[in-house]
Amino acid sequence: MSNHTSDSPSTMTRKGYEKLMAELVELRSTGRAEISRQLEEARSFGDLSENAEYAAAKEEQAKLETRISYLEFQLSKAKILDSSTIDNSSVTLGTTVTIQDINNSAEFSYTIVGSEESDPKASKISSSSPVGQALLNKKVGDEVHVKVPRGVRHLRIKEISVLA
């Protein structure tokens, strides 16, 4: 997780903001209620000093409260992108870029997002990831070479668009 001490805004899309907000609401209500139930059940087993269930529930509670605190912090400093003001003449946060792998001609698209809403399985990559950084500020037709764990990828930007 990110450094809690940074006061710089966390830029994200409206969808990303809403997803984090929904997670926060869920954790505050259902998550806390479930941990409370687990703690109550563990207390019923007796001596808390040797109660593994109680220790496990307390650990889960600590993780839950840490995540809630983290989400509250991130949402409090969030700057939501206005898709109507995004310029698609170059790759920026909030744009979807279609790229072609020069080595094998495969094409794929990524939406460039802030690190808080990065989800590679959903084709959303962080602007701070190696590929995201390499693509930022590039234009259609530009070629980039990105060092990734499996070597260097040679990519050509085919299209840049903004989703509403």
UniProtKB/TrEMBL annotation:
Indicate the segments forming the Transcription elongation factor GreA/GreB C-terminal domain, all copies.
Answer: 88-161
Origin: domain of life: Bacteria
Listed GO biological process terms? DNA-templated transcription elongation; regulation of DNA-templated transcription elongation
Q: Which SUPFAM superfamilies match?
A: FKBP-like, GreA transcript cleavage protein, N-terminal domain
GO MF annotation: an example = translation elongation factor activity
Question: Which segments constitute the Transcription elongation factor GreA/GreB N-terminal domain?
Answer: 12-80
Any one Pfam family match given in the protein's UniProt record, by short name: GreA_GreB
Instruction: Please provide the record's keywords in A-Z order.
Output: DNA-binding, Elongation factor, Protein biosynthesis, Transcription, Transcription regulation
Q: Which PANTHER family match?
A: TRANSCRIPTION ELONGATION FACTOR GREA (PTHR30437:SF4)
Q: Which NCBIfam families match?
A: greA (TIGR01462), PRK00226.1-2 (NF001261), PRK00226.1-4 (NF001263)
What family is this protein classified in?
A: Belongs to the GreA/GreB family.
What is the purpose of this protein? Necessary for efficient RNA polymerase transcription elongation past template-encoded arresting sites. The arresting sites in DNA have the property of trapping a certain fraction of elongating RNA polymerases that pass through, resulting in locked ternary complexes. Cleavage of the nascent transcript by cleavage factors such as GreA or GreB allows the resumption of elongation from the new 3'terminus. GreA releases sequences of 2 to 3 nucleotides.
What's the protein called, per UniProt? Transcription elongation factor GreA
What organism is listed for this UniProt entry? Answer: Aminivibrio pyruvatiphilus
